[in-house]
Amino acid sequence: RKSINEKYKEIEELNQKIGQQAQLLREKVRIEGIFDACIESSKGGPTVTAILVFGDKNRMRRARKAVNQFVAQSYPNKQIVIVNATDMSVTTHPHRLVKEVKWSDYPGDLEPTTGNMRTQGIDLADGDLLFPFWDDDDVYDRHLLTYLVSNYQTGKAVLLNSQIRVDIRNSVSYVHVEPDGIPNTILCPKTAARFGRPTGGEDYAFWNINWGLKSVVVDNRSFPTNTLLMRVWDGNNVLPVSAFMVPPGLDKEPYEQMGGRWMLGGNEAEHVKAVFASFGLKAEAKAPTEQPAGV
Fold first, then answer.
1. What angle separates helix 202-211 from helix 114-123, to the nearest 10 degrees?
2. Beta-carbon neighbour count of residue 28 at 10 Å?
3. Is 4 helix (H, G, I), strand (E, B) or coil?
4. What tens digit of pLDDT does each residue of 179-204 get?
5. Between the CA atoms of 184, 177, 36 and 125, what dihedral angle is there, to the nearest 10 degrees?
6. What is the side-by-side strand order in the sheet with 48-54?
C-alpha cells in the first residue's frame, strides 16, 4: 500500500502535467490567433511570386520538399517559379501555383550562376511582390508569406530580423538575429531590380543595392514568429558550417563541442521539431525547459 506522502507526490506530478498541458493549449490558441489575424489582414492582397533555383540533381528530394512547403503556405495569392539548370524536372505533374522553366530555354549565353538564375525567375514572375530566396536548404512555416504580406508597406521591402538556424547533422540550433534585417527573408515589390552574377553573397548584394534604404525590418525575435523561417545545414550546402552557423558563445568554445545543444526555449524547440517532422526531417536534441540568457 502506498503511503500518504507517495500519494501526495503522485497528485503533485499529475497537477504539474495538467498545468503543462494547459499551458501548451493556451500557447496553441495564442499562436493560431496571431496568424488568423495575419491571414485576415492579407485577404485580397497582391500575388507573391517565390523563386527557387535548382542546379544540382543530388538535391532533388530537398527541392521537392521546398515546393511542397510553398504549396502549403496559408497565403492564397501565390506562385512559385522554379529555374532549373539540370536535365531533370523538379515537378512531377502540373500545378496551377508552379511554373518550372529550363535554364537552357533562357536566351543568351550567360552561365547558370545563382544570381543569373534568380534574375531569370524575376523576369518570369507574374506576381506583384517577390520572395526571391525560396531555397531548398530552408524549412518554412506555413504562415511565413502571410506574415510578411501583413507587414508589407507599399514600395518598400520587408525583412525579418530573426530566423532559426539548425545544424541538423549535429543537432545544434539557435535563434539567429540581424538587427538590420536578414536579406534572404526579403519580400519586395517586382521592379527593375535584378541580381548580379555571383553564386554566394547575392542575397546581401541584392538587398543592399536595391532596398537598403527602403526596407521595413520586422522584429520577430519572440515566439512564435521567430520560427517562421528555419535555415538547415546538412553538409550539402554551398556555405561551410562555420559560415552558416554562428551561434552565441562561439567565441568562447569551439563549434565542434556544441553538438546536441539547442539554444532555444522549449516552445521554439518543440515547434521546430514539429514543423521539421511534417516534411520528413528529424533533428535529435533534448529541448531545454527555459529560454537561455542572452538570446
1. 50
2. 11
3. helix
4. 999 999 999 999 999 998 766 788 89
5. -10
6. 98-102, 78-84, 48-54, 129-131, 188-189
Strands (E), the chain: 48-54, 78-84, 98-102, 129-131, 138-140, 157-160, 162-167, 172-177, 188-189, 215-218, 229-233, 262-263
How many other CB atoms sit within 10 Å of the CB of residue 76? 15
Distance CA 55, CA 153 (A): 33
User: What length is written for the chain?
Assistant: 295
In whole angstroms, how far apart are CA 2 and each of 5, 6, 7? 8, 6, 7
Per-residue pLDDT reduced to its tens digit, 223-241: 889 999 999 998 888 788 8
CA–CA dist 74, 80 (Å, integer): 14
132 with 211: CB under 8 angstroms?
no
* Joined grid coordinates for residue 207: 538587398
Torsion sign across C-alpha atoms 180, 140, 46, 79: positive
